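Exercise 7. Given the encoded structure of a 262-residue chain, write a plausible sequence.
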């Protein structure tokens, strides 16, 4: 069911671009309508309460930035995201003189525009209404073996997870802080035999990161004969769970699901 409390009006003379953007936003559970010109858009705004207008600079009747005062006169609280296929210093100056929320260049990543729209609704105090539950969990695979990382990526993506990869301890810590994954799949022995231990220690002693589940995956038993278990050896390796390589996908997925559920 469409959410009537998060209405977006797209005003763009390029009907294909408008439809593509509409589909993108509908997937995020917004209620979206489109209009090819400012006249119809203005009439629609008089009859329906919209929260956000995404408007292109090139419209049939006038430039989009010239239409901003018209829309604001109808609804002073409307949040306007201005878009342009190509930018220039002169165009940007004209756009930013207007009372707009965000200026987006269409050649940039779509995620930037989606984030701007999310920020609109954060400003309006409706962030909790955004459909977060269907967002897939992100899993960071930390392993110095590219073949293992590739194989794990295929297994995890087949179940709808988003996957990030890191191949050493420095890259792992950088990605954890930047991506904030929902779970970390961590090899124990990498460039250094203690890399996995060091990473896990840093994670579990960081107030912002310690709640991220760590599932250790290693051939440590096969290579060293050391039988490891977080249950009995958790004092010096605080991983939340452990599986031995070679990993059986069905076992790995069950362990991951259990950790994500908490």
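Solution.
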């Amino acid at each position: 069911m469409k959410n009537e409390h998060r209405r977006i009006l797209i005003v763009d003379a390029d009907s294909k671009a408008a439809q593509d953007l509409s589909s993108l936003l509908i997937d995020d559970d917004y209620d979206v309508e489109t209009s090819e010109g400012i006249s119809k858009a203005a009439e629609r705004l008089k009859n329906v309460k919209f929260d956000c207008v995404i408007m292109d600079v090139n419209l049939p009747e006038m430039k989009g930035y010239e239409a901003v005062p018209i829309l604001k006169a109808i609804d002073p609280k409307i949040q306007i995201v201005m878009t342009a296929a190509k930018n220039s210093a002169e165009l940007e100056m004209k756009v930013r003189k207007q009372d707009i929320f965000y200026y987006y260049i269409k050649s940039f990543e779509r995620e930037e525009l989606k984030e701007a729209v999310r920020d609109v609704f954060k400003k309006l105090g409706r962030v909790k209404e955004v459909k977060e539950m269907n967002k897939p969990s992100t899993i960071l695979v930390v392993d110095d073996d590219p073949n293992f990382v590739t194989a794990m990526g295929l297994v995890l993506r087949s179940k709808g997870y988003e996957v990030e990869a890191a191949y050493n301890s420095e890259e792992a810590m950088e990605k954890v802080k930047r991506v904030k994954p929902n779970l970390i799949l961590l090899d124990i022995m990498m460039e250094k035999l203690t890399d996995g231990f060091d990473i896990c220690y840093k994670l579990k002693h960081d107030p912002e990161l310690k709640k991220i589940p760590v599932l250790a995956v290693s051939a440590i038993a096969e290579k060293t004969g050391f039988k490891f278990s977080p249950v009995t050896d958790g004092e010096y390796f605080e991983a939340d769970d452990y599986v031995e390589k070679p990993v059986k996908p069905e076992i790995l997925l069950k362990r991951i699901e259990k950790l994500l559920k908490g």
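Remark. Strands lie at 7-11, 31-35, 52-56, 79-84, 102-105, 138-142, 162-166, 183-187, 214-218, 241-244. Students should compare their own answers with the one above.
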